[in-house]
């Protein structure tokens, strides 16, 4: 569906006209989205400027060189040492830049700041020192990643304060740069989980995380992990179940999972036979027509996965409905329907899958919602179910960790789907602009995040809610 | 793999391995000079004719010709068979033509060795040729798709005129000039070399020094008569006879080379002086089963211990293939770089050879890219390309591998050294390598 402001922004003449008229409109930047499956060198030729303490330098050096980026390291002479080996192996020699030195004409595709060493409020000024000079050099659709230690792991209150400060900083920065299509995210890396950072860094620095911004991530060694983490075709040999896959986010997710090598089981209601079978055909997957609220559903799904595929590795609970009414007008049926599809059935199906078909090292991903988390008029039932999932993933993640199974929720913001297309025009226009990027996301943006969480490389993330919302002004 | 090696040994022991008996090449000339009117087949004819004459191989015992080429003649791409027919070899001498970009010549030779060692043949001529002067202009498919159906259906001149009107704009139907560019990335070979120089920290001066050594060594080899055994005079259609390589500059200097302008980027380092030029030429090698060679009274010069062909991402460092292929060939030969007496690398660009040397010398590279504990090793410049390489001698794409096999086989035989390692980079991100040992 067309977004007028986005179209104007892409037309140089119209853009100039709007600007010269002095209209109080900021034109959103067209986002640069990745096409095709994961590549070995996702960051080919990208200039990545790295600053900060260097606690994570080894991991950063490895990720950047392997992904084909050209690392520019800000710091003292010894700061480039960790980058030399990978530079030699992958032909990505590091460039050393003195603190405060910003060479003429240089443009950065990404800025990465290692804030692990920030352990007291007075030390926070290193953020200003690094970003102040570089922020103007960040290219359109650029990436900022701030790394730090989780505040909850810090013993001293002052250190916890400094760690927590990174979150407010990153969220604000994301809002400052959003109009250029750039994103800023924060990654808290637990002590001992450094080697699980690779996959997430690759994802955040790539053109696959376009609509993920102002988002804190927590990388931990909570889930058991023994597998290899391939960077291309990471889902080869895996079986993925996607519910509500007939259209929208579900269909986009099925396609992306299949593109990374997964065998996809496309699940939707029997009424959606037509569109669901089209998706199944196009992704070379199989079709399973079940109503998720049917009491027989968990058993039928488990049997199908076991018999036809020998089990399942990835479960994406995408099926969801709204039954909007203010509470005083809402019938108990409307309440039941929303809560049953969005939450109860998710728990029932997962419980059954955990009894057998779901293999070790598996991935469970469910769809929460920004509106659900933030609360919305007329959505008491919907918001109850969607925020219920947040508690569910956190608790389940602890239980499944020893089997290497991660459990996460995705919270999409304003996504251009059939659902949002049906909104009244003015409301839709307003909703699109209420985020740092000033535009709606696409189903594939959510799909890319789901696909990433489904990869072996996402082994550091579990029990979390990942917002794909373009930096929405609401929510938490 | 250990099992394979054992097998090879028993085969060697029984004299059934393939050996290089001799090799001949035409002089290598700059494109659009004296060989302009000789296409890839004519150049191949000249090399093979001379090989037959010099080795006096019994023609009726030749099993086949295996030929390598990159710019294949569109109307007769199986050069090998055309050579057999042109030279009036017995009709039983069958022929195949292979292409593996710049590794085509080596590919032809190793295919011949494999055929002999499998027992399919006992005497094979292998080699390669290319004539950049005769690269064909490609008629756009749009023109073909418009006119071919008409031609096949016997249409009237009016139909052709009507069809003409479909062929607009005119720029879409102009023949496309051939270009040494990657099909997938569009990157020109020289740009790839520029990027490799940058990625591996190779300076302009290092490249020029390397190019200078290549020219001086090739010039010395020519002056001393070292190439007389392997280069044959060739008569051209205009009646001249070409005796010697046309591109070697024995009188060049670092100063002269440093004055040349970069070709592929304004602030670049690749010049006409430190890159291999577009070249016309052909090279042929005679291979036999060892026992057959000895029975016929030939002196085997060298045999293959191993070979390896590899591929890397062409979008990354296009010409780094040998850095993977050379260690793999050594591994297959159960050898270390320190066991090798001479190394011969195809010099597509000085920057490319120097980049590969750097990779082979890097512990980090060995660990990440080869799964080894430590670097493959440093290559002593005194043992590398002892008689120069493609930068000085030139590089008719398909011929280079056969040229290298010939020069190295002769070198092992003449000097008494025992092991040689070959490395060739090729378009598409391909790498080729082989280990030869003296017989």
Describe, in plain words, how this protein is organized in 3D.
The complex is a heterodimer of chains A (476) and B (439). Chain A is of the alpha/beta class and 476 residues long. Helix content of chain A is 39%, strand content 18%. In chain A, the strands form 2 sheets. Chain A has a 7-stranded parallel beta sheet with strand order 3-2-1-4-5-6-7, sandwiched between helices. A 7-stranded parallel beta sheet of chain A has the order 10-9-8-11-12-13-14, sandwiched between helices. In chain A, helix 6 links the parallel strand 5 (138-148) and strand 6. Chain B has 439 residues and is an alpha+beta fold. Chain B has a domain at 2-135 and 276-438: Peroxisomal Thiolase, Chain A, domain 1, CATH 3.40.47. Chain B contains 15 helices and 12 strands. Chain B has helices at residues 2-13, 40-55, 79-86, 104-117, 141-153, 157-164, 189-199, 204-224, 254-259, 290-295, 321-332, 350-360, 363-370, 390-393, 400-415; strands at residues 18-25, 29-30, 64-68, 94-98, 123-131, 234-235, 241-242, 279-289, 302-311, 342-345, 419-426, 430-438. The longest helix of chain B is centred in the middle third of the chain and has 21 residues, at 204-224. Chain B is globular and about 70 Å long. The two termini of chain B are 23 Å apart.
Task: Output the keywords.
heterodimer, A: 476 residues, alpha/beta, Rossmann fold, 2 domains, seven-stranded parallel beta sheet, globular, B: 439 residues, alpha+beta, Peroxisomal Thiolase, Chain A, domain 1, ten-stranded mixed beta sheet, two-stranded antiparallel sheet, 15 helices, 38% helix
């Amino acid at each position: 569906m067309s977004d007028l402001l986005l179209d104007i922004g892409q037309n140089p003449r119209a853009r100039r006209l709007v600007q010269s008229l002095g209209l109080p409109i900021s034109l959103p930047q067209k986002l640069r989205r990745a096409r095709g499956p994961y590549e070995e060198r996702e960051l080919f030729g990208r200039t990545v400027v790295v600053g900060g303490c260097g606690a994570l330098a080894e991991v950063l050096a490895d990720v950047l060189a392997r992904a084909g980026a050209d690392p520019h390291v800000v710091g003292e002479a010894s700061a480039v040492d960790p980058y030399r080996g990978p530079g030699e192996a992958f032909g990505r020699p590091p460039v050393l830049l003195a603190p405060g030195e910003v060479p003429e004409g240089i443009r950065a595709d990404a800025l990465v700041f290692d804030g692990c060493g920030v352990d007291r409020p007075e030390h926070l000024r290193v953020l200003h020192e690094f970003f102040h000079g570089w922020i103007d050099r960040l290219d359109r659709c650029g990436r900022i990643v701030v790394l730090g230690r989780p505040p909850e792991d810090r013993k001293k209150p002052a250190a916890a304060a400094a760690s927590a400060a990174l979150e407010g900083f990153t969220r604000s920065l994301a809002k400052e740069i959003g109009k250029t299509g750039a994103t800023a995210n924060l990654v808290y890396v637990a002590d001992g989980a450094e080697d699980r950072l690779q996959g997430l860094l690759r994802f955040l620095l790539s053109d696959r995380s376009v609509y993920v911004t102002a988002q804190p991530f927590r990388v931990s060694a909570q889930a058991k992990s023994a597998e290899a983490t391939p960077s291309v075709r990471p889902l080869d040999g895996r079986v993925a179940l996607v519910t509500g896959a007939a259209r929208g986010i579900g269909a986009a997710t099925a396609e992306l999972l299949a593109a990374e090598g997964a065998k996809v089981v496309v699940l939707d209601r029997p009424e959606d036979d037509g569109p669901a079978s089209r998706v199944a055909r196009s992704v070379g997957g199989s079709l399973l027509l079940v109503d998720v609220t049917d009491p027989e559903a968990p058993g039928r799904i488990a049997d199908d996965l076991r018999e036809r595929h020998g089990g399942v590795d990835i479960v994406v609970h995408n099926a969801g409905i709204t039954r909007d009414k203010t509470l005083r007008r809402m019938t108990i049926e409307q309440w039941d329907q929303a809560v049953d599809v969005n939450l109860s059935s998710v728990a029932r199906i997962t419980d059954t899958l955990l009894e057998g078909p779901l293999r070790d090292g598996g991935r469970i991903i469910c769809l929460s919602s920004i509106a659900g988390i933030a609360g919305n008029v007329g959505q008491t039932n919907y918001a109850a179910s969607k925020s219920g999932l947040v508690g569910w993933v956190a608790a389940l993640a602890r239980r499944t960790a020893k089997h290497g199974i991660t459990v996460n929720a995705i919270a999409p913001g304003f996504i251009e789907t059939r659902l949002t297309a049906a909104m009244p025009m003015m409301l839709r226009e307003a909703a699109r602009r209420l985020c740092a990027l000033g535009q709606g996301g696409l189903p594939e943006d959510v799909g890319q995040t789901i696909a990433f969480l489904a990869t072996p490389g996402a082994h550091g993330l579990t029990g979390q809610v990942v917002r794909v919302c373009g930096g929405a002004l609401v929510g938490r | 793999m250990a099992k394979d090696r054992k097998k090879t040994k028993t085969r060697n022991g029984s004299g059934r391995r393939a050996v290089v008996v001799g090799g001949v090449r035409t002089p290598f000339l700059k494109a659009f000079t004296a060989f302009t009117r000789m296409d890839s087949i004519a150049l191949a004819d000249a090399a093979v004719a001379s090989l037959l004459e010099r080795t006096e191989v019994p023609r009726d015992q030749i099993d086949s010709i295996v030929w390598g080429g990159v710019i294949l003649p569109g109307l007769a791409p199986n050069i090998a068979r055309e050579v057999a027919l042109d030279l009036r070899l017995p009709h039983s001498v069958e022929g195949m033509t292979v292409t593996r970009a710049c590794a085509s010549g080596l590919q032809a030779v190793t295919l011949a060795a494999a055929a002999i060692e499998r027992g399919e043949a006992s005497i094979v001529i292998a080699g390669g040729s290319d004539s950049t002067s005769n690269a064909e202009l490609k008629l756009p498919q749009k023109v073909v798709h418009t006119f071919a159906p008409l031609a096949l259906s016997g249409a009237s001149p009016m139909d052709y005129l009507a069809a003409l009107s479909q062929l607009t704009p005119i720029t879409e139907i102009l023949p496309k000039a051939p270009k040494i560019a990657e099909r997938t990335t569009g990157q020109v070979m020289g740009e790839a070399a520029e990027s490799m120089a940058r990625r591996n920290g190779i300076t302009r001066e290092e490249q020029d020094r390397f190019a200078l050594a290549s020219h001086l060594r090739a010039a010395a080899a020519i002056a001393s008569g070292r190439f007389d055994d392997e280069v044959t005079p060739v008569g051209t259609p205009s009646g001249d006879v070409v005796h010697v390589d046309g591109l070697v500059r024995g009188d060049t200097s670092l100063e002269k080379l440093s004055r040349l302008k970069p070709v592929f980027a304004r602030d670049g380092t690749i010049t006409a002086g430190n890159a291999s030029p577009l070249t016309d030429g052909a090279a042929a090698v005679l291979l036999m089963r060892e026992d057959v060679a000895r029975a016929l009274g030939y002196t085997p010069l060298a045999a293959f211990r191993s070979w390896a062909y590899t591929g890397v991402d062409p979008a990354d460092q296009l010409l780094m293939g040998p850095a993977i292929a050379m260690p793999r060939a050594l591994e297959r030969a159960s050898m270390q770089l320190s066991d090798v007496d001479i190394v011969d690398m195809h010099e597509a660009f000085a920057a490319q050879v120097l980049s590969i040397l750097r990779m082979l010398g890097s512990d980090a590279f060995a660990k990440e890219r080869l799964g080894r504990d430590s670097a493959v090793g440093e290559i002593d410049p005194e043992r590398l390309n002892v008689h120069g390489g493609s930068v000085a001698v030139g590089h008719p794409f398909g011929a280079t591998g056969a040229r290298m096999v010939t020069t190295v086989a002769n070198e092992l035989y003449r000097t008494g050294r025992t092991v040689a390692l070959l490395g060739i980079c090729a378009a598409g991100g391909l790498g080729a390598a082989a280990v030869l040992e003296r017989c």
